[in-house]
Amino acid sequence: MGSLEKPLPSTRPAARFRSSLSPAAERRSRMRPRFVCLSSKIEYQHWALAVVAFFLVVLLYQAFLPSSPVADRSPERLSASALAGTAGVGDLDFGDGIKFVPQMLFELEREKQEEANSSALASRRRVKRFQLRKPKLALVVPDLSPDALQLKMVSIAVALKECGYDIQVFSFSDGPAHMVWRAMGIFVVIFPSILNPGANIDWFEYSAILVSSMEASPIFSRILIVVDSLLQEPFKYIPVIWNIEEASVVFHLNVYSSEVQLHFVNDWKQDFARATAVVFPTHSLLIPYSAFDMGNHIVIPGSPAEAWEADTFLARYEGQLLKESLGYLPEDFLITVIGSQFSYSGMLLEHGLVLEALKPLLQQFLSSNTSYSLMKVCIYGWNFTSSYKKAVEAIAQKAGYSSGLVEHIVISDDPKYLGSANLVIYGSFLEEQSFPSILKYAMCLGKLIVAPDLDMIRKYVDDQVNGYLFPKENIHMLTQILLNAISKGKLSLFAQRIASVGKSHARNLMAAEAIQGYISLLEKVIKFPSDVLYPKAVEQIPLRLMEQWQWELFANVSEEGLLNGSSRSSTFLKNLVEKWNNSHTNNSAHSYADADGTWNPIDWEEEKKTEMMIAEDRLEELDRDDQPHGTWDEIYKNVKKAERLKNELFQLKERDHRELERTGQPLCIYEPYFGEATWPFLHQTSLYRGISLSSKGQRLETDDIDASSRLPLLSNPYYRDALGDYGAFFALAYLIDSVHKNAWIGFQSWRVSARKASLSREAETSLIRAIEEEIHGDSLYFWFAIDKDPRNSEKMDFWTFCDAINAGNCRTAVIEAFRRMYGLGDDWNHLPLMPDDGDSWSIMHSWALPTPSFLEFVMFSRMFVDALDREMYEEHHRSGYCYLSTSKDRHCYSRLLELLVNVWAYHSARRLIYVDPESGSMQEHHRLENRRNKMWIKWFSYSTLKGMDEDLAEEADSDPPNWRWLWPATGEVFGQGVHDREMIMRQSEKERKKRETKEKIQRMKKRARQKSIGKYIKPLHDKTSDSNASKTV
Q1: Where is the composition biased (Basic residues) (predicted)?
Q2: What is the average pLDDT score of the chain?
């Protein structure tokens, strides 16, 4: 439990606590950073003098005890306890209050308001919603076991479906609750691999992802998967709401080593930081997870967990004598005192007050034969220290309780003490924001509850209807209530009726708050595109779907063989630790047999051979040490040379048979991608080649192209996101001969592969055969049609669909771009005709073209994108808004560019051939003979586009403008004037070199030469002298 004895460290980022103060004090407290805990004392002016005397006794015991009720912790222990959730949140005394301020919700509200104001002010054109499809949600659950968590998610899903959401459930394992989701009409997907869950899912199909329970965290956990989906591009900005119901996972971390804890905390901090919102059902759960608070923790109160556990308890112990199993007599009247889950110094005083209020009942429960009292008081709490128990025992004895009447029971997994109680008293006066879970559990067990009239309790408990309330300022009212509720050693009939009403009321307590809270949170975090239907408001949902949990759906679902939540969490954490140890333990030099196994002769022989090889290697090293090594410069050069050769060999190795096959084939299909999460959707065959928009997320050990290194513009995140796949088009077109040597070029989006709509082997063979045989000539082959797109369920015409996915302003943007491109006047309002003749169009960049035609298309696209950029850059870059989107959007005009290839292909008189991705059959759409007098051939002809391109190149080369200009940065700047000037420069350079060579020869001929002084003549050999010399000898 969370202790309130010590304040939290000031480094905790976001969640803030405040005491319950007056409005003026509340305003002052908002100015204080981080956690602000203030005391709001409750005045008790009507207490009698006897109670005041009793206070003095309590204070004396509290002052002279060896230690405080919650022992002081050293800084070393504090960090560990903070991890386990036992760190305090301030020195709260008797009657103090505590308040959690959800900073994230305030920030979301502020962002929504700023977004609405900025959108209205920044955009000069009105955006429009077409609302063609429902928003889709992904709900990730750990398993399909029938439990309280499953019941909660089912109840929320029922309300979300009524709001207008489409829901798809993902689970790690199947279970009995599968039939519940099927009955609701919700499709369930079981992850195919537990080692890499979510790797083959296109999360862009979902407006948001709801992850339920800590056990579902492997969906984006770095502990279990190597390439995690939701922590990597391009999925890292999809809203993720993580619902956590249990604290046992954090508590179990204490049993492992500190190294494991450190790594777990670091990994889980990344997971918690990734989530848009981490939702807890109670405020007490915020304390155990405070070490992982990244500023996104919020509380949405309400859960069926207490009611589910109560039903399980009653079914398990039905017909059993609980009191006898605990050592009580059947006629004993057991009063259980429960309290806040927080621990604070005022608890001792509160328990003392409750014992004082129960003292008049002792006489009523005296046994007739003996002085033995049939009333037993059980103080039920989370962490009682030995000194605290001694203090309460001393107070009980001072108040007149005999030994054994007052017991202290620590809350555990076995709730027999609470289940066998005749009456439950909530003995905490701490003002909290959420209804106490332990009190709700007692009500679900059918116990009569008596509680102080705190604000949160008074909100759900009606006095003498489903429970008893007493004024917190007058403790004597508790005594009076108990005397009225107890008659002849038993609960009165009226009290029993109140307990029965409380049981039925608590079964669906706070269900409406929980369901409404999730619906409101989704509305805040989701940015709905213009083509998505906006969901219904909370007020429009029928009350019957929100006021109760969907118990009837689980009426016939079996629960046999299921572990409880704590056991599953413990097992889950154990599996995490084992996987972490396996992945972080260094591999040993040798592999040994099992501990209970025996060595055989073959193992010994292999061991001897290994030792001999090691000895030979050591001898060779000694021999090398004796050889001269040269200077350090020579060693450095040799090492650099070896590394260079190694890199060259590695690159040659990577250019495997796929590249050799690609060189001889007529077509190469490029797959643009951004981020590691897209890798599972990319192909590995020689027909395909990846092109990464960023060097950071490029695939390893492949020959993928780094688009950012070819086109520096893509190093700018703004243009990388705004251009999308067009960045890959521009990067490939720039000096294309250096990377692409095939006659045809194609592209395929990774999202097409994610939707299982990529080319099959038959379709690939059919496409290559059509290209080789030149069946259709200069054509555009495409295999993902616009009528297959889920955004076009109503089969709209081309420009209407473009408007639908671009906030109703597609036509306006294209007209404005054409004005800038072709230098048209402001009165030009015509669009290229795209007829609605029953045929389809290409979308999602899945098409193939001859390489020269591709370069022509890129030439047109560069000018079109430059015109769009001049229109939208200032507003979009400054505020994040553009009139092609209803909210802030990094991919401002990428949706419009998806359709641009159709406009160019249609009006440049190219044939449009649809290729069925399954069978490979081909069909021509928008036949050429039907396009007469409909095409803008002069506007899209090569000569027109080439002339415009040369004019821009001349302008960029001779007189570049002083304003920001995108066109030169999107590719090669080359015009006829540039070509002529380069020819002249090359010719003049050639003439200069020729002239210098001629001058050098002339200088060599004309240079002065020194005349020889004389000629050396070798003397003749004198044979006579030689003979005389020999004779003399």
Answers
A1: 1003-1012
A2: 78
Q: Are strands 486-487 and 490-491 parallel, antiparallel or unpaired?
A: antiparallel
pLDDT at 405: 86
Token output for 204: 């862009």
Identify the pLDDT of residue 601: 37
**Predicted confidence (pLDDT) per residue in 692-710, tens digit:** 999 888 988 788 999 999 9
Q: What is the rounded distance in angstroms from the CA atom of residue 495 to the CA atom of residue 449?
A: 9
6 token code pair: 């010590």
- CA distance linking residue 94 with residue 87, whole number of Å: 19
Going by pLDDT thresholds of 50, 70 and 90, the confidence category of residue 359 is: confident
> CB-based burial of residue 562 (10 Å sphere; 0-12 exposed, 13-18 middle, 19+ buried)?
middle
Beta strands in 213-266 (DSSP E): 240-243
Do the beta carbons of residue 835 and residue 934 sit within 8 Å? yes
Return the amino acid letter for 407.
E
The residue type at 328: Y
Identity of the amino acid at 313 = F
Give just the sign of the alpha carbon dihedral 961, 962, 963, 968: positive
For residue 64, how many other CB atoms are within 10 A of its CB?
8
- Any idea what DSSP says for residue 473? T
Beta strands across the sheet bearing 688-692: 705-706, 688-692, 667-673, 744-747, 847-850, 779-782, 911-915, 922-925
Whole-number Cα distances in Å, 999 to 41, 993, 1004, 1008: 105, 10, 9, 16
What single-letter DSSP state applies at residue 217?
Answer: G
Grouping H, G, I as helix, E, B as strand and the rest as coil, residue 746 is strand
pLDDT band (50, 70, 90) for residue 769:
very high
* 569: phi then psi, degrees, rounded to nearest 5: -65, -40
Residue 261's pLDDT is: 60
CA dihedral sign of residues 574, 575, 580, 582: positive
The radius of gyration computed from the CA coordinates of the chain, to the nearest angstrom, equals 40
Distance of CA 595 to the CA centre of its chain: 42
Which of 710, 767, 713, 720 minimizes the C-alpha distance to 744? 767
pLDDT single digits (tens) 132-188 = 889 999 998 888 989 899 999 999 999 999 999 999 998 888 889 999 999 999 999
b/e map 576-615, b = 16+ CB within 10 Å: bbeebeeeeeeeeeeeeeeeeeeeeeeeeeeeeeeeeeee
Which residue in 868, 887, 873, 722 sits closest to 118, CA to CA? 887
Residues 6+ apart with CB under 8 A from 659: 686, 703
Q: Tell me how long the chain is.
A: 1033
3-state helix, strand, coil in the chain (%, to 5): 50, 10, 40
pLDDT band at 559 (very low <50, low <70, confident <90, very high): low
Stretch among 220-234, 407-421, 524-538, 542-556 having the lowest mean pLDDT: 220-234
Q: Based on the number of CB atoms within 10 Å of its own CB, is 30 exposed (0-12), middle (13-18) or buried (19 or more)?
A: exposed
- The CA distances from residue 49 to 57, 396, 401, 660, 668, in Å, are 13, 19, 21, 99, 94
